[in-house]
Design a protein that fits this description.
This protein is of the alpha+beta class and about 100 residues long. It is about 25% helix and about 45% strand. The chain has two helices and seven strands. A four-stranded antiparallel beta sheet has the order 3-2-5-6. Strands 4-1-7 form a three-stranded mixed beta sheet, with no helix packed on it. The longest helix is centred in the N-terminal third of the chain and has 18 residues. The protein is globular.
């Protein structure tokens, strides 16, 4: 009886530990423009989002902050590379809000 109780306690502790160790969070980008945009994660292009589409991808656990910048996708030598939307966030903030959503107007 005591062994069964100890096993149940151990299983519940392991389950809580695994649930508390989320190693990734969702990043959603809603592109309301009429052009494809590029999502940059700390300056590195990581995703393309087509016009009128909401795309979701995940990011792994990180320390410090991550900055997401959204710019128009460009295949020409000269084009508008203005930052359309930007968001800097910590891992703790991402966990509190269950990921982030960035809307590109």
């Amino acid at each position: 009886m005591i062994a069964r109780g100890a096993i149940l306690l151990l299983v519940s502790i392991v389950t809580m530990a695994v649930a508390g160790c989320d190693s990734e969070q969702a990043v959603r980008v809603e592109n309301k423009t009429d052009q494809t945009v590029v999502v940059y994660e700390d300056g590195v292009p990581t995703a393309l989002v087509q016009s009128g589409v909401t795309e979701e991808f995940t990011t792994l656990r990180f320390r410090g902050t991550l900055t997401y910048d959204i710019k128009f996708f460009c295949e020409d030598e000269v084009c508008d590379q203005t930052v359309l939307a930007s968001r800097t966030i910590t891992w703790e903030q991402m966990q509190q809000t269950d990921g982030i959503t960035i809307v590109v107007p």
